[in-house]
Amino acid sequence: MRKKRTTAGDSSKTARVTSGATTRRPSPRSLKERLAKVRMFLCDVDGVMTDASVYFSGEQEFKRFDIQDGLGLTALRKSGIRVGWISSRPSAATTRRAADLKIDFLHQSKGGKVEAIEQILTRTGLGWGQICYAGDDLVDLGPLKRAGVAVAVANAVPEVRAAAHYITRASGGQGAVREIAEMILKAQDKWRQVVADHSQ
């Protein structure tokens, strides 16, 4: 029986087979270089900012958001990194939490996520290479394949994990976004200032 061979088209990416899909993990050094270029962090909401659970009481909807994730996003914004949420599911709970955190861009529509992000890029003058995008499900594949830094949360589906440059240790809604925020800030030598600001 002949063995299957897996090749990588980009020398900065290592390829391997997981659940029938090819991953594209860069080396730690290459990942840090990518993170250093990030000027905007965008992510899905359900399954990334939350644990993907939705609770209903009559007409009212409830979601659980992680407080440490929120502080991570606030730290990004204060450090000059813009933040946005791209969701395919309109939600009053999402709108309220976005307002609490002063999220720069909030998109909630069943339309394509790539088109929504490209509109944001046009408004800001940024390019895909300056974006870090985090997702968990198939609707996130478009942005993940274009972003300079593509991140899958630990609870992501196999196809999303395969498309990611990095997979978080934490699951969505349980510190994954905080993990990503710290990675970006440390790669840009801004984390020490964040710690110092909270140490006074």
What can you see in these coordinates?
With about 200 residues, the protein is of the alpha/beta class. It has one domain (about 25-195): 3-Layer(aba) Sandwich (Rossmann fold). The protein is built from eight helices and twelve strands. The chain has helices at about 30-35, 65-80, 90-100, 115-125, 140-145, 160-165, 175-185, 190-195; strands spanning about 15, 15-20, 20, 25, 40-45, 55, 60, 80-85, 105-110, 130-135, 150, 165. The strands form four sheets. It has a six-stranded parallel β-sheet, with helices on both faces. It has a two-stranded antiparallel sheet with strand order 1-4. The longest helix is centred in the middle third of the chain and has 12 residues, at about 65-80.
Briefly, what is this?
This protein is α/β, with parallel strands linked by helices and 200 residues long. The protein has helices at 28-36, 67-78, 92-101, 113-124, 141-146, 158-163, 176-187, 191-197; strands at 13-14, 17-18, 21-22, 25-26, 40-43, 55-57, 60-62, 82-87, 105-108, 131-135, 149-152, 166-167.
